[in-house]
Amino acid sequence: MNPPAITIEDRTLARADVTALQGDDPVRLVGCTLDEAKLADLDLTGWVFERCSFARTDFGKAELELARFLNCRGAFALFRGANLEDAAFRSSDFNNASFRGATLSAVSFEDCKLTGCDMADARSMGVRFTNTLLVSAKLPGFNFRKDTLVGVDLSSADLARCDFREASFENCSLREANIEEARFQDADLRGADLGGLSILAQAGRFKGAVVSAAQAELILSQTGLKVRAR
């Protein structure tokens, strides 16, 4: 993929403007406003977006492979069915965005805010989250097997049927998350806040998982038992 050949700065763009910029090489947009733009089905492969605004922008079924979103804001943006393979999001705020049904293979999110986002039915192989807020996000069925999650807040998230086998958590939160049918076998949970989780009720899904002494006491407290040093 060639680097961006054209840079557009500090403009408000609509679909017609973006379409006119399409060509053989990707484009770099800096400080541009595309709020509520209808960009569905466009080929934006390799485009770079820096400090751009995408409030309620519609990227439905767009080609965004290898795209870069750097310091962008996009509350309620729509990526439904979009191809985001190998895309990267850095220091960006996409609260309540919808990635439902999108291709997220090898996508990375770093230092992002994704509170309330919807990633249900997404193709999620190899997605990487680092220092990212996913509070109340919908991530059913995601595959985190053998991943290392660092600084990821999944409080109150929908994690039903997620695969966390052999995953490790560092400075993370699973507090009050929905973990129905999720698998945590052999996971290292010592770096996760497990408050509000009914682990004993589905203990088989945690077989071989590692917890700290404090976490073990919290889990046992669900039975009414108290742990005391001799």
Give the N-to-C terminal Cα separation.
64 Å
Per DSSP E runs of 2 or more residues, the count of β-strands stands at 11
If strands are numbered along the chain, what order do they take across the biggest sheet?
A: 1-2-3-4-5-6-7
Stretches with pLDDT under 50, minimum 5 residues: none
Radius of gyration: 20 Å
Query: Element order, helices and strands?
Result: EHEEEEEEEEEEH
Protein architecture, described:
- The N and C termini lie far apart (64 Å).
- This protein has a seven-stranded parallel beta sheet, with no helix packed on it. Strands 8-9 form a two-stranded parallel sheet.
- It contains two helices and eleven strands; from the N terminus they run βαββββββββββα.
- Helix 1 (15-21) links the parallel strand 1 (6-9) and strand 2 (27-30).
- 41% of the residues are buried.
- The model has no long low-confidence stretch (mean pLDDT 93).
- The chain is 7% helix and 14% strand.
How would you describe this structure in keywords?
single chain, about 230 residues, mainly beta, 7-stranded parallel beta sheet, 11 strands, about 5% helix, elongated
Secondary-structure topology with pairs:
Layout: E1 6-9, H1 15-21, E2 27-30, E3 48-50, E4 68-70, E5 88-90, E6 108-110, E7 128-130, E8 148-150, E9 168-170, E10 172-173, E11 192-193, H2 213-221
Compact description:
The protein has about 230 residues and is mainly β.
